[in-house]
Amino acid sequence: MRxxxxxxxxxxxxxxxxDVALPTAVGSAGMLVEWLRERDEAGHxxxxxxxxxxxxxxxxxxxxxxxxxxxxxxFPPMTGG
Length: 81
Description:
This protein has 81 residues and is of the alpha+beta class. The protein is 28% helix and 23% strand.
């Protein structure tokens, strides 16, 4: 699966994207974020409950299934004006 990081997540993770083989236990978008938190120190310091997630270019919720998905984009909440 391709994981893309945007804005402050890109800076914190030190890369804009990566290809990963997810553990079989990671079945939803929320589980992916939790796995990234637990995977390493950068993820632990970076991700919290305010992460916005898109699965295959469609905005998703924590319970959105990753079954068959090829990409996930993670970005912080944004404000406009």
